């Protein structure tokens, strides 16, 4: 059960990063800033859920860093 929840949260984080990258192309600067803030808020909410599912903040942080490195060029 925990593994599938973790996989779902990892996928949500990846989708947030993808949406952020798509949103940065051709959008006004203020809109970009607001969109990036919103996406990072969503990613942080996923991180908190990941931390709860894993019961380990260090492991959740490592996963988030891994996903960030994978998704952000």
Model description:
With 73 residues, the chain is an all-alpha fold. It has one domain (2-71). Helix content is 86%, strand content 0%. Helix 1 (2-23) packs antiparallel against helix 2. The longest helix is centred in the middle third of the chain and has 26 residues, at 29-54. The protein is elongated, with a radius of gyration of 13 Å. The termini are far apart. The mean pLDDT is 88.
Helix content: over 70%
In terms of per-residue confidence, which ranges show pLDDT below 50 for 5 or more consecutive residues? Answer: none
Mean pLDDT, to the nearest integer, reads 88
Distance between the termini: 32 Å
Number of domains: 1
Radius of gyration: 13 Å
Shape: elongated
Order of helices and strands: HHH
Beta-strand residue percentage: under 5%
Q: What characterizes the major β-sheet? A: none
Can you count the beta strands?
0
Tally of helical segments: 3
Structural features:
mainly alpha; 0% strand; single chain; 73 residues; 3 helices
Summarize the structure.
The chain has 73 residues and is an all-alpha fold.
Which helices and strands occur, and which strands form pairs?
Layout: H1 2-23, H2 29-54, H3 57-71
């Amino acid at each position: 059960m925990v593994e599938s929840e973790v996989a779902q949260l990892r996928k949500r984080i990846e989708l947030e990063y993808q949406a952020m990258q798509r949103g940065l192309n051709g959008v006004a600067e203020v809109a970009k800033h607001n969109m990036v803030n919103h996406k990072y808020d969503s990613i942080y909410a996923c991180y908190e859920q990941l931390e709860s599912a894993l019961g380990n903040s260090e492991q959740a942080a490592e996963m988030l860093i891994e996903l960030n490195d994978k998704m952000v060029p």
